[in-house]
Amino acid sequence: MLYTDRAFIDRFEPVADLGADAVEFWTWQDKDLDAVERELDAHGLDLVGMVGTEGPLTDPGRIDETVAEIERSVEVAADLDCPTLFVLTGDERDDASRARQRELVAEGLEAAAPAAEAAGVTLVLEPLNTAIDHPGYFLEAAEEGFDIVRTVDSPAVELLYDVYHQQVTEGNIIQTVTENVEDIGHVHVADVPGRYEPGTGELNYPNVVEAVEDAGYDGYFGFEFRAKEESDEAIQAGLSLRE
After folding, report:
1. Residues 100-116: pLDDT tens digits?
2. 126 carries an active-site annotation
3. Active-site option among 39, 140, 158, 224
4. Which molecular-function annotations from GO does this UniProt entry contain (predicted)?
5. Active site residue 224
6. What is the value of pTM for the model shown?
7. In terms of Cα–Cα distance, which of 150, 155, 86, 88 is closest to 124?
8. Can you give the residue ranges of every domain in the chain?
9. Among 2, 85, 124, 191, who pairs with 52 as Cys (CB 3.0-4.6 Å)?
10. Which of the following is catalytic: 24, 126, 158, 197?
């Protein structure tokens, strides 16, 4: 979402130059992974997250295909020393009950969990807002996401808590994170409105980050935001939250 005026492979250097020590990106299937590894090594960066599947875990006719996609992504993540895979549910369907679709999501994660456990990779299930960015998406509420994670009951399955999506959906960020931090495997940040960098909108991000860390979260904060003006300035705004 940053340095979109550059070719993907040319985005690693400026991030490192600004002081970041890690990166994440979305899909790996459309990337030159050998080139990615060279850039990571050249600039001393870790790859900490990428998309393991965009679903549909909600489709009973494609659940085996989706699980196989996650398992293949686990192999790729292990090869890249990437500890986290983002898992999306896919859209809500009208040919199965919501309860059945929720069961399918849990069953799919349960089926993929042994491969993730063996590889030391964490699958993080992500709720998304349906009001602005992802109309029709199945999993919107953090509480339902936590319930699914607890149903699966695997150390390799946790929740991706995206502060932007959950502020749009339901708010109550600090209390939700504090009460459920043991099931959060990754955090994304962006401000509301606009999905720009922290400090551009309504969220008090210094308070949010401090509360998340005080609750016991010690992982990365992924910068899943657009730059309101310049990418350099946006990244610096994000990095300043943990100075």
Report:
1. 999 999 999 999 999 99
2. yes
3. 224
4. isomerase activity
5. yes
6. 0.97
7. 86
8. 49-242
9. 85
10. 126
